[in-house]
Amino acid sequence: MQKEYWLDRWERKDIGFHQNEINPYLCQFWQSLQLAPGSTVLVPLCGKSTDMLWLHQQGHTVLGVELSGIAAQAFFTENGLTPQCRVHDQFTHLEANDMHILCGDFFDLDKNDVAKVTAVYDRAALIALPPEMRKRYTHHLLPILPHATQILLVTLDYPQYEMSGPPFAVSMDEVTSLYQLHAEITLLSQQDVLEKNPRFQERGLSRLQENTILLKTLIP
Q1: Residue ranges per domain, the chain?
Q2: What's the CA gap between 153 and 139, in Å, rounded?
Q3: Which pTM does this prediction carry?
Q4: Helix (H, G, I), strand (E, B) or coil at 42
Q5: Which CATH number fits domain 3-12+22-217: 3.40.50.1820, 3.30.360.20, 3.40.50.150, 3.40.50.12280?
Q6: Three-class DSSP category at 186
Q7: How many Å apart are CA 120 and CA 170, to the nearest integer?
Q8: What is the rounded distance in angstroms from the CA atom of residue 58 to the CA atom of residue 52?
Q9: Which tens digit of pLDDT belongs to each residue from 164-195?
């Protein structure tokens, strides 16, 4: 899956993956991370997610990473914010009210970019990537995160042969395979949600689960 795929989706406003509502699992389980006030939260492949606003309202500094400049600018514009803009290394940095979006390629992130991060919120990154890119994503992210970073991960699981992604199916077995050497894994919630998602029924799915997972990265 090439970068142009996502840039084109945003250009055409083909963004059915965008959720206007705050993710309910974020609201339900975020406090289980027990973060200190003012903690910095990384939101990879953030789009224009309103979840970032909710995280900011909880007292966090938010650091999003987004490939599409259209999506990054839309986040601020649609929320009545005028961001300051500067170019630094590989990214265009947009910032307003302790909400930051690094506009560029996620795989250009390095340790300096995420040095202040204490938690990651991933609702839309892992499931947006095909299998080989999911391995690349975790292999890139985990080594650059500060020690003992926590990750709240929300995934979808369904019979992959019934529908081509994105969003892609990510099973608990795959989460275990990707993270078990690097993190303590706790399944917080597993919900059958097919009845609540008619658009996925229309695409032919016979089963759809949402899994909410807490990952606590291990100190080497």
Answers
A1: 3-12+22-217
A2: 16
A3: 0.94
A4: strand
A5: 3.40.50.150
A6: strand
A7: 18
A8: 10
A9: 889 999 999 999 999 999 999 999 999 999 99
